[in-house]
Design goal:
By secondary structure, this protein is of the alpha/beta class. It is 32% helix and 23% strand.
Length: 407
């Protein structure tokens, strides 16, 4: 029995826990003046550690607190979406992007941008006679008759016809003083509209314009990212069809990202899904405030791979909504149901320039009209010349498209 009792006593002995030791030490220390001072100092040190850990940012930690830095996730596509988009008629003069109506029933792109003191034109579709509509807008908004930058995305009529104006030679390259042209690096076109474009572009160069392909602009670090003003820049992005043969002209499209402080605006011409895949893989794309709908809102562009990365707040579609110019099949007429399905998870702020009112007679009217998206470096505003009704709320949409319930 004695052995058993001894064994029991031995097994009942335990090492004091840390908390009990601390409590005992604090209790003992509190009975002396020196101990009280030590406890007080310890409390202040503990408070200081908490403040540093949770609250104080450090420049060598990228402006983060130590806690934030240790728990951060690498996210190169982050973007602040807290500022609401204004639809109350505000137009910010700092930075303005205008998606132009082109004066006819045909689908095409022409985007006029005011960035600081720079006047910039991306494309000049849709037909030769669009040159007049484009010039009317430029004349009302450009005070010195100079376009500092012109971007020609690819060699399709609905993007370049207005640069020459056809045989009349009354297009953009003939009328304005052109600073720098950035054009498609490749083409397989032999069409007359391309021949006329080349003649007009060469005329602009003879008058002093500098001309680079997108590949040249990308490879030259002085051209790849151009400063347009304070906190404003224009970046030529890379995609593989600058160097690789594509199955069609659309994938040769020049891709450009404009940025104003933390706000980003993406233009991809008519780039299709294969090109978009390359665009995502070859560039560190941010989330964007604005995305110009790829290929006029076709089913072959605005791919899931691209949308997942850029997650746009506003999408502007340059097309003649419901036109049967390219197909009689309703669901594939611009803007297509597939395009809507892929954009819908990120935004319902989709705007369209023009609508077909009579396909048989090629009649059209303003849908949103010319769409102006402007930014003051903090806020984004959308103002349309006809109305600010988003696509999903239009009568055309209700009759021809559906909004995905899982969006």
């Amino acid at each position: 029995m004695a052995t058993k009792k001894s064994s029991s006593k031995k097994s009942s002995s335990k090492t004091p826990s840390v908390s009990k030791v601390v409590k005992k030490t604090v209790k003992k220390a509190s009975k002396t003046t020196g101990g009280i001072i030590a406890i007080t100092i310890g409390v202040f040190v503990l408070i200081a550690i908490v403040i540093v850990y949770f609250l104080v940012p450090f420049s060598f930690l990228d402006g983060k607190t130590f806690n934030e830095y240790m728990n951060k996730k690498e996210d190169h596509t982050s973007h602040h979406h807290a500022d609401p988009i204004s639809f109350n008629g505000d137009v910010y003069d700092d930075f303005k992007i205008n998606f132009l109506e082109l004066g006819n029933w045909y689908t095409g792109d022409s985007i006029f941008i005011k960035a600081g003191d720079n006047d910039i034109l991306i494309d000049a579709g849709s037909r030769y006679n669009s040159a007049q509509a484009i010039e009317d807008f430029i004349d009302a908004n450009c005070t010195d008759n100079k376009l500092e930058y012109v971007i020609a995305t690819h060699a399709h009529e609905d993007h370049i016809a207005g640069f020459s104006g056809g045989s009349s030679k009354n297009g953009i390259f003939y009328k304005y003083d052109i600073g720098t042209i950035i054009e498609f690096a490749k083409t397989d076109s032999t069409a007359a509209v391309y021949t006329n474009y080349v003649e007009a572009r060469n005329y602009a160069v003879s008058k002093g314009a500098k001309c680079y392909t997108a590949l040249q602009a990308y490879n030259d670090t002085t051209l790849r990212e151009i400063t347009l003003g304070t906190d404003m820049k224009m970046t030529t992005l890379y995609q593989k069809y600058y160097e690789t043969k594509a199955s069609g002209e659309n994938d040769y499209s020049v891709c450009t990202l404009f940025s104003y402080k933390e706000h980003h605006f993406l233009f991809t011409g008519d780039l299709e899904s294969a090109g978009e895949k390359s665009l995502v893989e070859k560039n560190n794309l941010p989330k964007v405030d604005l995305y110009k709908a790829g290929h006029h809102g076709s089913k072959t562009s605005s791919s899931k791979a691209l949308m997942q990365v850029i997650q746009p707040d506003v999408v502007c579609c340059c097309c003649c909504c419901g036109s049967d110019e390219y197909t009689k099949e309703n669901k594939n007429q611009f803007p297509t149901q597939d395009f809507i399905n892929r954009v819908a998870p990120y935004t319902e702020n989709i705007f369209v320039t023009t609508i077909s009112t009579d396909n048989a007679n090629k009649k059209y009217a303003s849908m949103n009209g010319t769409i102006c998206v402007s930014c003051d470096g903090t806020k984004i505003s959308v103002v349309c010349s006809n109305n600010n009704t988003i696509l999903k709320d239009t009568e055309w949409f209700k009759a021809n498209r559906t909004w995905p319930t899982t969006a």
